[in-house]
Every structure is written in C-alpha cells, then in structure tokens.
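Sorry, explain these tokens?

***
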Amino acid sequence: MKAQERRTAIANLLLSENRAVSGGELSEVFGVSRQIIVQDITVLRSAGYDILSTHSGYVMQDSPLKERVFKVYHTTLQTEDELNLIVDLGGTVVNIFVWHKVYGRVMANLNIFSRLHVKQFIEGVRTGKSTELMNITGGYHYHTVRAESEAVLDKIEKALAERGYIVPEI
C-alpha cells in the first residue's frame, strides 16, 4: 500500500470510528511502524483534517471531505461496476444502508476507496459466504459517498445517473 493510499485509509477509518484509535492499533492494521503513523497523521492534519491526539488515541473531529447519500438500484451483477465507477471518480463508499419495513434502517460500513477494495468486497460476497445487503430490499439501497469536493460528488452522481443506478426522486 502506497503512502497516499494508506493516509486515505487512515482518514476513512478515523471518520468511521466512534472512538479513539491508538497509534499502535493503526500501526498494526496498516503494517507500518508507529512513527510512520505519526508522520501520516501530521500530513493529514496539514491537508485540513482536524485530528486530535488523546490519551487513548486519535480522534477525527472534522474533515475537509464532503459527503452525499445516493439512493441507488441495480442488480447483483452490476455491483462491481457501480463501486468501480465511484472509486474511479475519486469517491469513497463509506457505507451501505437499506430501509427495511420491519427492521428499519440496516447499515454496514464499507470504506471502499480503491479498485482493490472493490475486488476484495466482490470476492467476499460472491464466494457464497453471505449476500449483499441490498438483496433484502430487492436491489434498492443507499450509499454514503465521501469525496474531496462537491464537484467530485456531482460527477459521481451524474455518472451513476447515466448508468441508470440513481433512483429518481418522486
């Protein structure tokens, strides 16, 4: 994993956690020394991420990244295309959630930001160990997508719409 990809992954992990994450834990997850993690946090801070150092680890206070929720529909065979489209345009698929008539909102964190992550996700669901969450609502689902600007999110939304994945608002 290259340094920039690791920093993106660190930012996504900190954004998705509701707790402090220690430098040792980050070091273990990303297979680098704690000193490299400290350097990565410094670079992220200089890029505008508001990361606090606490006695129990790092906490993301605020992010310069923008987020948008997209309501989408597609088949299982189109999942890889949808995810690749988002990451190729500079987005991170933060999560997936569905609105189930009995259970309410059911959500899973994804943090997919590269084609490698898309491939790993697709392999995981296609092995038959489990099925995609969207299948419990007939293919309708939502993604929270994070990107560096509203302009990037606009491009992602346009591309999803052009492929017919965006569910039109009624």
User: Anything to note?
Assistant: The first helix runs from residue 3 to 16. The chain has six helices and six strands. The mean pLDDT is 91. The beta strands are 50-54, 57-62, 66-73, 92-100, 104-112, 140-147.
